[in-house]
Amino acid sequence: MKPPDAKVLLMPIITTFYVHIEFKIKTGIWSVNLPFLCSKCGVCCTLDDFLTAGKLKISPENPTVHVKAQTLYEELGRRWEADPVEYDRYITTTSCPFLFGKICSIYEIRPEGCRQFPNTPFGMQTQNCEALTRFKRQLAVLRKGRTTEIIFCFIERPIMHMQCTVKQYRRCVAKLCSAGITDDELALFCIFNEATM
Ligand code: SF4
Ligand code: SF4
Fold this sequence. Notes:
The chain is an alpha+beta fold. The protein folds into 2 domains: 6-40 and 129-194, no CATH class; 43-112, no CATH class. Helix content is 42%, strand content 15%. It contains 8 helices and 5 strands. The protein has helices spanning 6-9, 63-82, 84-93, 112-116, 121-125, 130-143, 166-178, 183-194; strands at 17-25, 28-35, 99-100, 103-104, 147-154. The longest helix has 20 residues, at 63-82. The chain is elongated, with a radius of gyration of 20 Å. The protein starts with 5 loop residues before the first helix and ends with a helix. Residues 45, 50, 53, 96, 98-99, 104, 106, 110-111, 114 line the site of one iron/sulfur cluster.
């Protein structure tokens, strides 16, 4: 695994969630932060909950999006009233109309549910998000064989301070590498921890 390069380290802090892990040992507690990094694969935008992810943050500057969203909401309303079973079939087989390729075309104003995914009860159970599967594997490998407590946090709040020795930190990095952490995920892990040292 090559060390994270400066360009990646300088990437803007993204909206995401992380887990603050506290390790309990005889002499006290030490901790690290494990962030989730969305790989922007676009898969969650094809899942059935995208249409119920909340309202868009639409301003008068984007009337095209407003019209498209209104059309979508009205169509969904009609489908629901006509036949709830058919409505369910429709939303489970239709991708979000704002998805182009793997890119969200309205990323800046996407609904709250999209911003939070996968940190929702629905999202955390999904088997479709490979980044989440990797995240869970990383969390498991860090906690394995240790007495721990975890706290789920959003980035909007100040990042919780990690408290550990260089040796403990390096051991965490080695475990994460053994769990198949990607270069970008490792870079974000470094940002979330070294920024709070
Ligand atoms: S499925 Fe996961 S990795 Fe892919 S875009 Fe959604 S949250 Fe990101
Ligand atoms: S609004 Fe954007 S992020 Fe949300 S489901 Fe649609 S394409 Fe995905």
